[in-house]
Amino acid sequence: MDLAGQDEGQEPLVDRPIAVSAAFEGSAEIGEARDLAGEFLGSVQAVHGLPVSQRAMGMVQLVVSELVTNARKYAPGPCLLTLEIIDGAVQVDVWDSSTTLPSVRGADPDRVGQHGLEIVLAVSQSFAVHREPVGKRITATVVLADDPGGAAAGRQVM
Predict the structure, then answer these.
(1) Cα of 43 vs its chain's centroid, Å
(2) What is the DSSP secondary-structure string of 55-104?
(3) I need a labelling partner for 70 at 20 to 30 A (CA). Which of 27, 28, 77, 147 fits?
(4) CA–CA dist 68, 90 (Å, integer)
(5) Sequence-distant (≥ 6) Cβ neighbours of residue 33 within 8 angstroms
């Protein structure tokens, strides 16, 4: 896993995006992608003071896991994961080198597995697929503070 944080360049701290990126090359690194998402959202809350619900924490890790798993399973070479905070949500971008666009399969109660994209669509505020000069980029957005009970990750409700 190669990390590229937000500490590069000469932008003032106030105007810098809250983001993290990492490249993943092996299927064993899918757990590292989930961990990166959890650590990133913990930092968003602890360092930047933005509320992150427990639900959002779990949903972002789930989306990251599903998208990185698909990229590693179906595309040759590495994939690139980028997480960025935009307007109270985390935008999850996964780039891979495959030109084949994902598609949701029809409902089949007997089908075992291959429900990842359906899950991502169900838990995301928005979802998009963009063709790139090489490969494609899948973007899903999850709201940070959407827990119906209002509980924030890492904080106890009193």
Answers:
(1) 15
(2) HHHHHHHHHHHHHHHHHHHHSSS-EEEEEEEETTEEEEEEEES--PPP-P
(3) 147
(4) 16
(5) 1, 22, 24, 64, 65, 68, 81
